[in-house]
UniProtKB/TrEMBL annotation:
This is Ribosomal protein L7/L12 C-terminal domain-containing protein. Gene3D superfamilies: 3.30.1390.10.
Amino acid sequence: MDIAILFCTCVVVLGVASIQTQLTRSDRRVARVERKLDTVMRHLGLEEEVPRKDEILALVRDGKQVQAIKLYREATGAGLVEAKQAVDAMS
């Protein structure tokens, strides 16, 4: 009975490690594609349109950075660091 539990534990651990490796590879691929897309957009002179940009800019002008970052995240689905960098670039 103890051997069966040990075997099942090993299988689960190996399965989780395999899934983590695949996710890491996928993250790297997505990052590479995003860098290429950013390069193409810069070359064409295009900028990504930010939804609700006017509202975000109004919050920045009023000195409400935290609310601006929160609104940026809600509008774009960006992470905290990315949203902070984008709002800082707007000010």
